[in-house]
Amino acid sequence: MAGGEVLRQNLPEKLEESPSGANELHVLAVDDSLVDRKVIERLLKISSCKVTVVESGTRALQYLGLDGDKKSSIGFDSVKVNLIMTDYSMPGMTGYDLLKKIKQESSVFREIPVVIMSSENILTRIDRCLEEGAEDFLLKPVKLSDVRRLKDFIMRGEVKEGEKRCCKRSRSEDCSPSSMTHPCDSSLLSSLSSSSVLSPLSPSTLSSKKSRL
Amino acid sequence: MDKVRLQREAAFIRSSLLDQGYLDEQFIQLEELQDNDNPNFVEEVVTLFYTDSARLIYNIDQALLSNPTDFTKLDDYMHQFKGSCSSIGAKKVKNECNGFGEYCEVQNYDGCFRTFQQIKQEYITLKKKLETYFQLLKEAAQIK
User: How is A28-53 classified by DSSP, letter by letter?
Assistant: First the structure.
């Protein structure tokens, strides 16, 4: 598809240039709570991210141009988002529904990491989200350390994407069983330090997940 | 009034709120998000909380007056309310909400009603203390 071709050429420039010239992450945050939107926006801005905050999954899809409206579909100035952070419990389209919709999309959008935020530590919920391809599951209230860690992880991922295109990776480093962490184990560890279920996020976990897609 | 004295009074209120469990680490996290470019961030969030949650409180009050009681709706409103309390670090209020949730689950109306009165009490108590706190900070900031 012509639109897809254009975007593939744009991939090396995924990170937006801020006025200072430093690479800036563009995060799309989705939450139906007014208070949480204000806090997450601040958390992201203070972490030097470009932020777009919307109040629902529907709005998020509209912003991404995935709402099926031909006029807002992929074009030359399509929106570049490096990370989506969405609340789980939202009226209408839940964060899980949004996650599913994004992961069902064409390759460009499917690659955008999606992080789920929830005030409830429910293992079945966490499992479902991770199974569906969520990059991480954060317990609310989200902290500055969570955002910083996510940012580092995404930035590293962006670098690795660049490397992947340049050289082939050997199969052996992709799927080592020891690098697969089960959410149950991590959640015990993470409850001590951060609000993340997948903590610490290691490059090997990332590569083994990507090889499943 | 003396700038230092005002600041000290504000600091005292803040420590008490934290020590007595009215507020938790999330409030401190919000303070960390404040800087010279956003000097009133914490107050803005707290104000937003009280404005926004007033709507939820009203909804819960109305739902408690409705017959028959829609416990699903009550639980839903309370979930939203609790989430907001958690976001500003309103520890005591948030903890009272847990009790409400339990009564909702077993559809115990009296339990819900009584607990909600307690929640509103804690909510107002915190509001007054925070108002005083921010007022003191504001007055101190106005003195050179």
Answer: EEE-S-HHHHHHHHHHHHHTT-EEEE
Nearest CA in chain B to A36: B87
Domain-wise residue ranges, chain A: 26-156
CB contact under 8 A, B82 and A46: no
> The pTM is what?
0.79
Tell me which chain B residue has its CA closest to the CA of residue A91.
B76
Q: pLDDT tens digits, chain B, 144 residues: what are they?
A: 799 999 999 999 999 999 999 999 999 999 999 999 999 999 999 999 999 999 999 999 999 999 999 999 999 999 999 999 999 999 999 999 999 999 999 999 999 999 999 999 999 999 999 999 999 999 999 998
CATH number of A26-156: 3.40.50.2300
Whether residue B33 and residue A141 make contact (CB cut-off 8 A), yes or no, is: no
> Closest approach of chain B CAs to the CA of A40, in angstroms?
10
Flag whether residue B91 sits within 8 Å of chain A, measured between CB atoms: no
ipTM of the complex: 0.94
Looking at domain B3-142, what is its CATH homologous superfamily?
HPT domain (1.20.120.160)
